Amino acid sequence: MIAELRSFPGVSCLRCGNPIPVSATIVDIQDDLANGGTDVPYAFRIRCRICEYETIYEVGKVQTFDGEPRKRRTRERAA
Q1: Domain parsing of the chain, residue ranges
Q2: What digits encode the pLDDT tens for the residues 29-50?
Q3: CA–CA separation, 48 vs 54, rounded Å?
C-alpha cells in the first residue's frame, strides 16, 4: 500500500523553527502578489502552535511543508 503524501502551506516560526500552517486566505494573497496584484497586504500576524510566539511574517515567506501540521500544545487548567 502506498502512503499518501500530504503537505501544507506555512511559515517557519522565528523562535522555535517549527512550521506554522497558514490559512487559505494567506495563500490567495500570495497568489495575487505573484500575479502582479498591487492592492494586497504584504504581511500577516500569526501565532506558533508549539511555542505560542506571535509575530509578523511576510507573505513571500510562505512555503510548502511536507507532512501534517502539528497539534496545538495544550495547557493544564487550574482546578
Answers
A1: 10-65
A2: 888 888 877 777 789 999 998 8
A3: 6
